[in-house]
Specification:
heterotrimer; A alpha/beta (250); B alpha/beta (330); C alpha+beta (392); A: 250 residues; alpha/beta; 13 strands; 26% helix; B: 330 residues
């Protein structure tokens, strides 16, 4: 099988970060970058499929500045065969602009599967995969938590609110991968050394038109901690209301 | 004055709450523009048109129902093609979708077919001149972006629960239309839709963690914690070290300095005083709820919401209230 | 809350992409596989054998030896960073890797025959063989040239007799590099190295019990009673006390880096705790006394990082001297001991619990202070280097 995995280089926001003086981007000082979480799962899925279905080729593709090559090499050190760097600095916020560049790169290249993470941890959009599929006119299943591939067809499971969907599709196809499907492996030290010798092609990204931009970036207002909703069972209704309307977790 | 479009999500022939949220948002936008019309698209199995009035209750002027025996379940390709045809550029200012599991799949496809912009998973919006300004959580909720979305129609998907449905009853004009693609010709087919049993989730992955401490008094009483977790449906059960040391729960359930470190969207601490070792394992949770009888317990210092009182009186009604809230959303 | 390291002087900028990748990989491995179990292993006094296959698969064992022997072929800075990250977890685990790589694989690599290298190195790198290093004896610690273990040449090989002590990995080792005198006991030039499969008749290892330090590591006594070895058991290029000392230079180099890891773990724990622990209505990190503690810790860690970085670059350039290694080992282990103690104190009563890491590091580091050349011996090595006069 020939598999492409579209990954994104994102800032590690586990760490503390600051908003830049332009008020719409992150202050780059001290930021570390890595493969977006869900994209790491997608890389792992590709590597496992490649191991199960005999040696094929796994290629990682991404848009970004020159520093992106380090992120691509991390995927190579996990076992991916080669990388494609589509130059774009900055990477637009608009998923359709990104999808346009990826579709232009991937269409007609003979990939059996094109994998994406379900959503990038920076923009939180989760739109590029299905958009690229549409632009390439390929079957697409998003946010899959389980996957089987056999004889040119696939079966996937998607988690909906309170239900599970089973979806059948033919190859070639575009899939976006949810977390939990396959924990990404750590690269081995030999893999890190081997990655230096694997090829990364680099060319300008053919971005699609941009309709969506960031106007302003800010931190959410701090909630006052230590807030007592009330005493005894009478407070339950108010707690439910706050969880639903204010915290939006229910 | 601008016309709006909303896509009303249904499952198994019934509209979901997110459908009413989308219609409410469209109504609000149309009214804010000086009184445009709201057109709502509903796609599903035969019989859906009989429920179109429900969409009128939230302000739909016109409902386009696409019914087909082959559309009892979601069909991404048919839905996307149909929504794109109904949402032809020129007639609508904004198209509202839900950022539900289905809507997150559908909206990007429609945007790509039409070649228009999509702001996904937004929590608030306003139309300002030739742009839609939308609020959208970024960096895993650690920051909030205001997005500028240009072009017509501008598509948005609304984070479930962000916009409360508001009733503004009208009698909609109901039209029936055919799917833009024969469901039998779809390449991607949903072969099964199964209600998910409340499976026990892993502590590290569950969006909700319900944890119990010494306040539960015995291993048997942990059933309350388990029942509360089941009520959430997507929750894992955790415990403090005191509890695992006493053998009330397996040590793999322990959250804290030496146990699991968790950061779920919601952490519910039941009968936990909040020793620093425990706090180390859960303080990065996005929202913390604490139920404890001692109002001076340290857990209340980190909790976003606390209820002071006897957990044995508070948790049972909480379980029922959570079940009700969850049922409303499905 | 993954460990994110301590990098006040942007040392990351001095590292190559591979060096950073190696460091981050081992760091993630330690978080995932070691941190959840190390506290219990320590209390129970056992080495976590189950981590060996994972360490081997990662490529940690003998990571700076060439790829032709199944190793990762890393440079010495990357190797040092591995030791740093392992010791951020526990000194005992770093000791395991140090012994396997620097004290067993290195002498076979540098003093062994081609056949010995081919036979042993790939299996040691894969963790299929576990090695130990028998130099120290009950009465000869800082003065190894005085050793009384002997290797008598016979018609068809060698016969070894003697006792070795404080041998890391001793009980679980499948192969042992034993140093013995082939001539009279007053002739340190006759010291040679031997590869001894631990199943050989007359070879016995027993655990040293009652340790209050390095509890997650095996430390053993080895008894050699008429151990018959074939002719080719000897390391052909070994000769004199310089040979085992050259291995110790390799190991001490790794220890210099490892100590930074332990210190970073303690500093990180103390810094986080100081922000969370409320006393007198405010975090203890808001008090001057704890801020001085933390400032001292950060300063010493940063100095040690700069020291090791340059030491690594010198080693890669082939110009590093044993005396430079002595300075780094002496300084870094001592600073790690100080930081572990201060971190433990900052943690208050909680600091004595195994739930926190500082006291475990503190107890471990007392061994690290003493082994591989005690702190005092390294002072004397530097003293000799400065004055030209040996004080020992």
């Amino acid at each position: 099988m020939k598999i492409a995995v579209c990954i994104k280089r994102v800032p590690d926001t586990e760490m503390r970060f600051a908003i830049a003086s332009d008020g719409k981007s992150l202050d780059p000082a001290g930021l570390k970058f890595d493969i977006s979480d869900f994209d790491g799962y997608a890389v792992e899925v590709a590597l496992r499929l490649n191991e199960q279905h005999g040696p094929g080729e796994v290629v990682v593709v991404a848009l970004g500045p020159d520093a992106l090559q380090e992120t691509l090499r991390k995927a190579l050190s996990m076992g991916v065969d080669r990388g494609v760097h589509l130059q774009a600095d900055p990477v637009p916020f608009d998923g359709l602009a990104i999808a346009g560049a990826l579709a232009a790169e991937l269409k007609g290249q003979g990939f059996d599967l094109i994998l994406f993470g379900r959503v990038a941890t920076d923009t939180g959009n989760g739109t590029v995969g299905p958009m690229a599929a549409q632009l390439m006119d390929l079957p697409c299943v998003t946010a899959i938590a389980k996957l089987d591939i056999a004889a040119g067809n696939g079966t996937a499971q998607r988690e909906l609110e309170g239900a599970t969907e089973t979806v059948g599709f033919p190859l070639p196809a575009v899939l976006t991968i949810d977390e939990g499907i396959a924990r990404p492996r750590l690269p081995s030290l030999k893999g890190i050394m081997a990655a230096k010798k694997k090829p990364i092609e680099s060319r300008p990204a053919q971005l699609g038109p941009v309709h969506l931009t960031v106007e302003k970036l800010e931190f959410p207002p701090e909630r006052a901690a230590g807030r007592i909703v009330g005493e005894g069972p009478e407070a339950v209704a108010e707690l439910i209301r706050l969880l639903h309307e204010e915290a939006k977790v229910l | 004055m601008a016309d709006m479009f909303a896509c009303a999500e249904s499952r198994s022939g019934s509209f979901r709450k997110v459908a009413f949220e989308a219609v409410t948002a469209a109504r609000h936008a149309a009214d804010a523009s000086g009184g445009g019309k709201v057109t709502v698209l509903a796609i599903g199995p035969p019989g859906l048109s009989a429920k179109a009035a429900e969409l009128g209750r939230f302000g739909a002027d016109r409902v386009i129902v696409v019914e087909h025996a082959g559309l009892a379940r979601y069909s991404p390709e048919v839905f996307a093609a149909t929504a794109a045809v109904q949402l032809q550029p020129g007639s609508f200012r904004v198209g509202f979708f839900s950022a539900s599991a289905e809507g997150r799949d559908l909206a990007p496809r429609v945007a790509a077919v039409l070649g228009v912009g999509l702001a996904s998973d937004i929590t608030a919006f306003e139309i300002s001149g030739d742009a839609v300004l939308a609020r959208h959580p970024v960096y895993v909720g650690k920051a909030v972006a205001t997005l500028r979305l240009t072009g017509t129609p501008a598509l948005v998907s609304l984070r479930p629960g962000a916009i409360a449905p508001v009733e503004q009853a009208r009698t909609p004009q109901v039209e029936v239309a055919a799917p833009a693609l024969d469901p039998a010709a779809a390449r991607v087919v949903v072969t099964e839709l199964a209600q998910r049993a409340a499976a026990r989730m892993d502590l590290g992955e569950a969006p909700v963690v319900v944890s119990g401490g010494r306040g539960l008094k015995s291993a048997e009483n942990f059933k309350l914690v388990e029942d509360l977790a089941s009520a959430f449906g997507n929750a894992a059960v955790g415990a403090t070290r005191a509890v695992t040391d006493d053998g009330w729960r397996p040590s793999s359930d322990q959250i804290g300095q030496t146990g699991r470190l968790v950061s779920p969207a919601l952490y519910v601490a039941v009968g936990i005083s909040g020793a620093i070792q425990h706090l180390a394992g859960m303080r990065t949770a996005k929202v913390i709820v604490a139920i404890n009888r001692d109002k001076d317990a340290p857990i209340f210092k980190v909790a976003d919401y606390g209820i002071v009182g006897d957990l044995f009186e508070i948790v049972p009604p909480l379980i029922e209230a959570v079940k009700r809230a969850r049922a409303e959303q499905q | 809350m993954a460990f994110t390291g301590v990098d006040f002087y942007q040392m990351d900028g001095l590292l190559s992409e591979e060096e950073r990748a190696v460091r981050d990989t081992v760091r993630a491995w330690v978080d995932e596989h070691l941190m959840p179990i190390i506290g219990d292993c320590y209390i129970e006094g056992r080495f976590p054998k189950q981590i060996i296959p994972g360490l081997a698969e990662l490529g940690v064992l003998g990571a700076n030896l060439p790829e032709e022997f199944g190793c990762a072929g890393l440079n010495n800075v990357a190797y040092g960073l591995i030791m740093q990250e392992l010791e951020r977890g526990d000194s005992g685990i770093r000791s395991f890797a140090s012994v396997q790589g620097a004290l067993v694989m290195y002498p076979i690599y540098s003093m062994g025959s081609d056949a010995q290298k081919k036979q042993w190195l790939p299996r040691l790198a894969a963790g299929k063989e576990i090695g130990c290093f028998g130099l120290t004896e009950p009465d000869y610690g800082s003065n190894p040239s005085g050793m009384i273990t002997t290797a008598k040449e016979t018609k068809d090989g060698w016969v070894l007799n003697g006792v070795k002590m404080w041998i890391t990995n001793g009980s679980q080792a499948t192969v042992s590099v034993i140093w013995a005198k082939t001539g009279p006991v007053d002739d340190p030039k006759s010291i040679r190295g031997f590869i001894v499969p631990t199943g050989t008749k007359g070879y016995a290892a027993k655990d040293q019990k009652g340790k209050l330090s390095l509890r997650a590591s095996d430390t053993s006594e080895i008894h050699l009673e008429d151990v018959h070895l074939p002719k080719d058991a000897i390391l052909p290029k070994s000769g004199g006390i310089k040979s085992p000392l050259s291995c110790l230079t390799q190991a001490r180099y790794g220890i210099s880096w490892g100590a930074i890891g332990a210190a970073m773990a303690c500093y990180d724990e103390a810094a986080q705790y100081s922000k969370q622990r409320i006393m007198f209505g405010k975090p203890i990190g808001g008090t001057q006394i704890q801020q001085v503690r933390l400032a001292d810790m950060l300063t010493e860690i940063t100095k040690a990082q700069l020291l090791c970085h340059q030491l690594g670059r010198l080693k890669d350039a082939g110009t590093m001297t044993p005396q430079q290694v002595s300075l780094a080992k002496r300084n870094n282990v001592n600073m790690a001991c100080d930081i572990a103690r201060e971190a433990r104190r900052l943690l208050g009563a909680n600091g004595i619990l195994a739930e926190y890491h500082s006291m475990r590091h503190l107890a471990n580091l007392e061994s690290v202070y003493t082994y591989e050349g005690t702190h005092d011996m390294h002072s004397l090595i530097l003293g000799q280097e400065i004055t030209g006069i040996a004080a020992f």
